Amino acid sequence: MTSAPEMTADKPQMKISEWKKIVAPFQVPSVPRAVWQLVNTFVPMVLLWWAMYESLAVSYWLTLALAAVTGLLVVRVFIFFHDCGHGSFFKSNRANSIVGFICGMVTFTPYAHWSWQHAVHHQTSGDLSRRGDGDIWTMTVKEYQEASPTRRMFYRIIRNPFTLFIVGPLVLFLLYQRIPSPRAKAKDRASVMYMNVAVVLMVVAMSWLFGFKNYVMMQLPVTMFAGMAGIWMFYVQHQYEDVYWEHGKEWDYTTAALEGSSFYKLPKILQWFTGNIGYHHVHHLSSRVPNYYLERCHNSHPMFHSVKPLTILESLKCINLRLWDESDRRLISFKEYRQRYAQKTPVAAAAAEEVDPADLPAPSEAGPGLS
């Protein structure tokens, strides 16, 4: 069983006014800590880029190995970018915006636009009535049963691990993040254009420094490795068996944070590379706690200790989870769906049915985001 957050059944959920007092001491940004994180991440990243360039003359396998480590550093940079978007990395909004934009260039992600989408994710995570922005497309069993063969096929393609973790990284960061959402405000849409220009200038500068072919041979695997790791982290944060989902009025913010966000227990080295974001239950409870205080906040109160950790081994089982079963209140695999529900569903003549464009999901349904 891939259960993660599991609160004690006999203890009532803490009120917002109560937990706000608990997290308040950890919501004060530390400039020295933030600056040190930037230094201990960007300095080795620059050195690794130079090492990758030199390794091209030795062995491309060595280049790929170095790209994997560089990709992990990019994940760490994304956490800084993410904290800046929440206004938690620095005290100054201006500093957050400047550093956030620079980190956005490194991660190929528009700062203001992504921050808006991610804020929506925090406001709606675990709410079945408000899915579609900044999350991974998740259908309920009932929705899947009622879907047309075309929509089912598209859903299966999107939820396939090959699509999510192999195709997804390059599509998400090189293409999807280049296009603004029609629902975004004008300033957020403009931020996509600004970032696109900045990315082009960065590519030109890096191509001038290393040569275009050499740059592409380094940048693509770095983006691939970073994207795979980042999407995986986002996936296991909200896609485990006993995750929390509720409809509209039944949805509760505190419960969604503590039961709908995993406590991903990682080895210290991976915890460092991922900027402590494995303490995702703490982050969703209060996004104003910067990454460098998440572990301290978790250790500070018994409220967080009742959240069951998700181990790496347990998280691997999450790969097969596809549908939210409202009757059992858990995510299930397609295999389990077939065993439990397939015979109750009328057989559809998928091969004979024409593809109706109306059956295809909106881009926001298919596009995964990072937390």
How would you describe this protein?
The protein has one domain (about 15-365). The protein has 18 helices and five strands. It has helices at about 15-25, 30-55, 60-85, 95-105, 110-125, 140-145, 150-160, 160-175, 185-210, 210-240, 255-260, 270-275, 280-285, 295-300, 300-305, 310-315, 335-340, 365; strands at about 140, 265, 310, 320-325, 330-335. Strands 1-4-5 form a three-stranded mixed sheet. Helix 2 packs antiparallel against helix 3 (about 60-85) and helix 5 packs across helix 9 (about 185-210). The protein is globular. The chain starts with 15 loop residues before the first helix and ends in a 5-residue tail after the last helix. Residues about 5-10 and about 345-355 have low confidence and may be disordered. GO terms for molecular function: oxidoreductase activity, acting on paired donors, with oxidation of a pair of donors resulting in the reduction of molecular oxygen to two molecules of water. It is an enzyme of class 1 (oxidoreductase). One of its GO terms (biological process) is lipid metabolic process.
Task: Write a brief caption for the model.
Residues 352-371 are annotated as: Disordered. This protein is 59% helix and 4% strand.
